[in-house]
Amino acid sequence: MSGHLHEDMKSRVIDISGASPHKCMKCGKCSASCPSFDEMDIKPHQFVSYVNNGDIEALMASKSLGKCLSCFACVERCPRDVKPGKIVDAARQMLIRQQGQAMLTPEDVPELLDPEVPQQLLMSAFRRYSR
Amino acid sequence: MQRVGVFVCHCGSNIAATVDVKKVVEMVSLEPGVVHAEDYQYMCSEAGQARIDAAIKEKGLTGIVVCSCSPRMHEATFRKAAERAGLNPYMVEIANIREHCSWIHKDMEEATKKAVVLARAAIAKVNLNAPLQPGESLVTKRALVIGGGIAGIQTAIDIADAGYEVDIVEKTPSIGGRMSQLDKTFPTLDCSACILTPKMVEAAAHEKITIYTYSEVDKVTGFVGDFTVDIRKKARSIDMNKCTGCGVCQEKCPSKKTPSEFNRGLNTRSAIYTPFAQAIPNVPVIDRDACIKFKTGKCGICEKVCQAGAIDYEQKDEIVTQKYGAIVVATGFDVIKVDQYEEYAYSQSKDVITSLELERIMNAAGPTKGHLERLSDGKHPKEMVFIQCVGSRCSDDKGKSYCSKICCMYTAKHAMLIRDKYPDVNVTVFYIDVRTPGKNFDEFYRRAVEDYGVNYIKGQVGKVAPQPDGSLLVQGVDLIDNKQILKKADMVVLAAAIEPEKDVRRIATMLTASIDTNNFLTESHAKLRPVESPTAGVFLSGVCQGPKDIPETVAQAGAAAVKAIGLLAKDKLLTNPCTAKADELMCNGCSTCANVCPYGAITYETKEINDHGIRETRRVASVNNALCQGCGACTVACPSGAMDLQGFSNRQILAEVDAICR
Predict the structure, then answer these.
(1) Measured between CA atoms, how close is A28 to chain B, in angstroms?
(2) Residue A81 to residue B343, Cβ atoms within 8 A
(3) Is the ipTM reported for this complex over the cut 0.90?
(4) pTM of model > 0.95
(5) Which helix (H) or strand (E) holds B200?
(6) B504 neighbors B519 (Cβ within 8 angstroms)
């Protein structure tokens, strides 16, 4: 894979997650807080290094994506506002998009129209869950 | 028209790499009034100054413009050079083509254009400059030290030893500060009280030092060399001349439920109290919020048992007004509140404590008489966990962005002392980095690991969970082994970040001393003037300026004292001649300027004015040049345009604007 694509995937993870991997001071409080630590192959504090190194493919292939409970204890307790849990979330989304598993198609949307549901929510769900 | 010389500095490559200095010289030569222009590698150097000297003499210059760095850096240098060459120093203008130009631009063509414009503005201004003569003000040979901790005590002793009167104002009932709360000190492990109390006694016994405890600074007016300060001596409710310090009142006082500030709330004190046994002065105060007599009118036991008749319930706050030449701020620090970090369970368990609380527990005069025990059940702990960087190095909104600097060392100290005294206790330290720059510091930390068997784990703790059996489950990470760690502990000690004492913002405001976003006082120059505030006559001592340990604090306290002594040793100071001046013919006596003046420098006088042959009596503004700091607020506020600032007149500033817009 070319370096350009690496950088592209890295910036997509950062864009989607809103995380700030460069702010990490490697204290490990995320891994210290994680309830699924033992089951993960890539540990929460390592997520950040993987992004910094642009190694997003390895992160997407990691079984940690399935083990993370999205409890966001790591996000909540991070003293540097790095948001490791959001990186996992972003990697999951990229994986889903890559696999073409669009969860919403344009045809689904009219069915979901409901006066109670704000249009903006539908739009953001459509953007998020379609390829 | 002046005969102006322009000197363009390369500042090595700082300016010359971005600004075409030759082009600037060429362009400014065309400006009206300019009879000489040259460039040189380092204008501030001796050779550079010699060029200015020669040009002034050879070309008969009446004004000079130096295109160089910020006037904050070298205005004084160039003014002195001009003065040596026989020019009035206020005929010098600086065009800042470094900070305002070369450092912030990348494109050479654009930066050169801007440098020329900045030079033009300075030339336009210097064409309207007039020679100014500084006045003189007297120096009051007395210093005020705000804060009576080790920083304030050391500064006061050093100033007093040089022969000047010093007053220490301390807000608590005793001097001693944070250091008096410490048990042992790193890296030598000598007992804190053993080295501090002699200093306290020395300060108290010094004939040149007056100590105001239980007192606060209420008001500061004046300026360098001539400050006037109101000190509020809070009502102690004790006659200090009569009290013998016997302590019977404290024993008999029935109100004993107030958390002891000195012991960090780990035990309680009486309503009438001295903070600790070695307090100076050894005179108690009555805490009126806790005293039964003050709350209900009944009781009065202390008065009955006092043999000396020193109790005085009627005492009132007293204001002492004193003049000072110099003021040293030594207000110190406190630790942050750690209960905001819920994951560490500080408010859930008595056995999660801060390091400062551990100091009190380890101290023989502390709440447990120096025995290491759990505050929940009094049991001796077997497993202790220390957590580093609690609230330090944070970019969230709870903590502090800075490293508190002292925690690595005091934690190594605590770990070592515990392992030494109680070999049965296992000590684990969770750290992010161990920072030990300092003489014998890393050796000290390595001793904790190698000789005392303290278990250092690189990784932070995520959670401390109190267990039903009274223990604490610590969930942390070992980043070297890449393992999560679950550890049962009996006590957890948090190395809480330190922050400036809360009062410091109020004090800085009174002193018009600048302060940063973390409430640390700002030094005048981070490297070259580290103990001086940018406000003349105000000096900084100790942690109020930034985190530091005891040796650094004492060194800085001495440095601040030397700077204060240097000021007090002068009989007179030259005052800034760039002060406001009212044009009596234009002044309509409206008082607007007096109302906006922050220094109280403007008064009004009624006098006879000769207005183009018409003599009449008018009320006009008059500026006290000794008080005026040249801030210019009055010149903006004046509705009739009568107020002007000498050296920065409206005409000069508009000429600069015209030159820029030309």
Answers:
(1) 5
(2) no
(3) no
(4) no
(5) helix B192-205
(6) yes
